[in-house]
Amino acid sequence: SGHRFAPRRAMVYYACALTSGGKDGTLAAMLAQSREDTEVVCYANVCPSADAVDELDSHCFQTVGHRCVDALGALTGKNVFRRRLRGSSVSTSMAYEANDADEVEDLRALLRAARRREPRLNAVCSGAILSDYQRLRVEHVCAELGLTSLAPLWRMPQREVLERVVSSGIDARLVKVAAMGLSPEAHLGKSIADVSETLIRVEELYGSHCAGEGGEFETLVVDCPLYARGRLALTKTRVEKTSSDAFAPSGHLVVDEFEVVLKPGAEGVAPGRVIWVEDGEESDMSADEAATATARPTFTFTEIESDNSGSASVVRVDDLDVLVTFKFAVNASARMYSMSFSAVTSTVDHATCAEVIFQRMGSALESEFGASSRDAWNRIAMTSVVLDDMSQFAKVNAVYAKYMPSSEPSARACVTSAPSGTRVYVDCVVDTSDAPRRSLHVQSISSWAPACIGPYGQAVSVGGLTYVAGQIGMEPSTLELAAGIEAQSLRAAQHAVSVSLIAGAPLDARAISVTVYSNVKDIEEKTNALIVARDALDALFSSSVRAFSWKPLRVYIRAGDLPKRASCEILPVMIDGNGPGGDTDDDDDDDDACNVFSHTRGGERQSSDATESASVYRASKFMRCVVAARTPDDGGIAEMFENVIHRLDEAGLTVRDLAHCRMYRVAKTSARAPEKLFNALLSAARESAGIDAPFLIDSIPVHACGLDADVTADVVLEAYAVAQRV
């Protein structure tokens, strides 16, 4: 199975295991405890305010059999923190918004108290499998309390969960049933091992979940390897039916009496205590400390003259100047904005440069969108951060976290540029339309894909596109890099596949572009990360039955460095639904209906002055193209201009439809190349439409670039256009 936790050397987790007494929380705690780097130090449980109540109408917590949780300390030898629910399911949108009357605030109070009494506590383990609702709430509380969320079962296949429960020696009894094929009289009180075949058969017949993830049943664990001191004996029970529906009767088991039967050697393990958590717990951080942690310095921006592709200002920091450039473009009909910011200095530290940029970004968002700054930040779909020194990433990331929203944040990529004088560069795509937005933000450590612990998500889908965060070759369960360039490159590709699948836009079927970065520090190594990634993508795309018939665009870049000193980073963009400007009644799987095409064109690769390009477009709707040139002079820029115009023309679009362009250029290419291309395109826009173009061209200096892994181009341009509707 792929769901295996490997040891991690750099971090030790002392975890509180969330439990209802059921199989999922127990299996998760066992998997966490099996890691060499993790110790389950206590348990936490929320229960109904009235002891006589067995089942609550809770969106987040299972409470049937809750009275038996009092025995958990005697069973395990660990302390058990419990709290009676004061709140209920009030904030029920997918993204949790703090509400004093919500049951999630009880979880917050419970974990805060547990951390205070267990000083080593730095992690929380939960049994979340498929429920984003539950996972997001646990992650929300963990993030605010500074705890790491561990979710060993996240996205584990249902049958594997069931098999692991049985094979791991977990004796879990059904204490609630509510599904076709199950009945209170026949199945309540039975062990999972005894009914596992029935559960699989019910899943096959009725499409339910054999591990109960759809609420088909709940369990109570009476014995397992974590129960070091004893097993739980249910000495007096009764069945309480809650529905006599002919097709799906429901009911639960009421445990009136139980006892702990001690195991041999139990006398050597002291029993744990049950610690009830009441109201009035003090905050872990004083108001002054909290204010200091989120404090933002104030800067004064002095505007200076700039070229016509953007604006510039100077910020004075401790008698030192930081040049801040700002570029902004808007596609009015698509309600899509592009922004870029750079801080140029050789004397001011990276964290201060980041503060300057994010303050300038905040004021731009607020002034351009006429909304509160916080609401505007939530409109960002994709953010790219480019540093001149990756060793400063942690400091810049700390500043990033102060400004970016923690709930439903943008996707993000981060690389290091070739030397250019720019200390920090940030660009973002902002969608202010009313189009539905989906954000995938998994902060829990699991075996699914690397967690995004912080204010950036794995993927954001909006405006017909899905943006996936840059994926590097980490082992998901440890967040450590895989061993070797090839392993890292393959892992990065695997993560891109996993994330895009859950985001609803599978990479193998819906990718329109993939940018692959390698680390220039590996240039002397025999294994080339770009080639490994290219071959993995070739295999993926050639073996797939694609939803549409185009060829995904690809750009290969050799960057100065990558996060964690990774060898490879993969950044895909996919079509979501029918794509930008797509009609809702189009058939996603019909090539003719979607009319998405791809073309390649250009000179021979062997020619020193060759210019080549490729595009993916939907006629009169959108176009994405890549152009590569080997000549950095004016002639090369002219050829790039001609290629962009041709790509727009074949898509039935014009220069005025351009929304965003990014230019990668090697060191020998003039820094003025982006400005020259911008001016050429701007002139074309004025001639054809009589208006200034709404697009911008960002420029990132790199060590090598190209449309194939040989990276022999001098300049690569990525351009994106969406039809401007009159």
Description:
Strands 18, 19, 20, 21, 24, 25, 26 and 32 form an eight-stranded mixed beta sheet that branches. The chain is 26% helix and 30% strand. It contains 17 helices and 33 strands. Strand 12 (311-317) and strand 13 form a beta hairpin. Residues 1-9, 285-292, 584-594 and 602-608 have low confidence and may be disordered. The protein has 726 residues and is of the alpha+beta class. The longest helix is centred in the middle third of the chain and has 20 residues, at 350-369.
Can you give the mean pLDDT? 85
Radius of gyration: 28 Å
- Ends distance: 54 Å
As a percent range, the share of helical residues equals 25-40%
- Determine the structural class based on helices, strands and strand pairing: alpha+beta
Low-confidence stretches: 1-9, 285-292, 584-594, 602-608
Assess the beta-strand content as a share of residues. Answer: 25-35%
How many strand segments? Answer: 33
Number of helices: 17
| Broad shape | elongated
How can the largest sheet be summarized? Answer: 8 strands, mixed
